[in-house]
């Protein structure tokens, strides 16, 4: 990998046209290094990827790209008011877009940045988007690292009912209420193996609210996730180096979701992070980054690879 390191924060964010819409993105490190495209989960902006985590990935030799998915942050908003109850029943008439459309956004971003192939890192719903990138545009994917994600099979990765109910609460009306609600979610989602940093959670929540607060966009992303299907049959045909990283105390997407990915993709493996919940805590960064690097170094994935 390249030896020249660029100033991580010199470029800031910029907007590009990708898949016919405007996406906000930021890149860090040496463009000569292998690119790592990071796809975040539902309702979470690019700053959901902690800058310290990005710094360490750059130090590991990647050219790191993070971006706002459509309908969050500073990326383009999409019209539509989905009926989530109807979508759960299979009526997709109010569905504004699909996760495959969001996968096409990711590929369009690579096009806009002049990147032919990239390592892909996806978190939660971003992991499902990353899987769709690998399924439909496998020639663009060097490796696939999926954190706290699942296959879309409703029998795996099931949420704790109380946690799911918390995530479905209506959006708060004020900034103060929104920040406190985000802190409560972070506390519930935090795993038992690491201390919960309430001050850091409040700082992150306030920064996210002040950068771009749009509950309607999150609902449209949620609709896309609800309408998604089980990817297991397509995953069995993948020949992309894949690792599923999952906390053992994830109450939103159970670790069986990560295991199902590892079972479906030939040559894939599950990397369990003891005590981690639904979040990427600093204490787990060394294990997570080491697993991403090992996976990125694999030349191929084949049915004969050890799991």
From TrEMBL:
Keywords: Hydrolase. GO terms for molecular function: triacylglycerol lipase activity. One of its GO terms (biological process) is glycerolipid catabolic process. Residues 34-281 form the AB hydrolase-1 domain. Transmembrane segments: none annotated. Pfam families: Abhydrolase_1. PANTHER family: AB HYDROLASE-1 DOMAIN-CONTAINING PROTEIN (PTHR43433:SF5), HYDROLASE, ALPHA/BETA FOLD FAMILY PROTEIN (PTHR43433). This is Alpha/beta hydrolase.
């Amino acid at each position: 990998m390249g030896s020249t390191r660029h100033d991580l924060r010199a470029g800031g964010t910029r907007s590009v046209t990708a898949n016919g819409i405007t996406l906000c993105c930021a890149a860090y490190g040496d463009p000569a290094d292998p690119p790592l495209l990071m796809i975040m989960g539902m309702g979470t902006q690019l700053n959901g990827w902690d800058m310290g985590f990005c710094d360490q990935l750059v130090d590991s030799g990647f050219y790191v790209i993070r971006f706002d998915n459509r309908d969050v942050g500073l990326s383009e908003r999409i019209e539509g008011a989905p009926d989530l109850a109807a979508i759960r029943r299979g009526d997709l008439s109010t569905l504004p877009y699909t996760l495959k459309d969001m996968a096409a956004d990711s590929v369009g971003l690579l096009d806009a940045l002049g990147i032919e192939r990239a390592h892909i890192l996806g978190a939660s719903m971003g992991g499902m988007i990353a899987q769709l990138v690998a399924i439909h545009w496998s020639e663009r994917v060097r490796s696939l690292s999926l954190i706290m994600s699942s296959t879309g099979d409703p029998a795996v990765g099931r949420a704790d009912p109380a946690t799911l109910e918390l995530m479905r609460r209506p959006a708060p009306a004020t900034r103060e209420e929104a920040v406190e609600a985000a802190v409560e979610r972070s506390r519930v989602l935090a795993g038992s193996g690491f201390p919960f940093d309430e001050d850091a959670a409040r700082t992150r929540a306030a920064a996210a609210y002040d950068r771009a607060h749009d509950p309607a966009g999150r609902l449209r992303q949620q609709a896309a996730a609800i309408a998604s299907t089980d990817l297991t049959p397509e995953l069995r045909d993948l020949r992309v180096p894949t690792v599923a990283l999952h906390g053992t105390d994830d109450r939103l997407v159970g670790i069986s979701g990560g295991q199902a990915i590892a079972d479906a993709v030939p040559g894939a493996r599950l990397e369990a992070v003891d005590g981690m919940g639904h979040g990427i805590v600093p204490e787990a960064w060394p294990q997570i980054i080491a697993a991403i690097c090992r996976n990125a170094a694999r030349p191929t994935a084949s049915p004969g690879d050890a799991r």
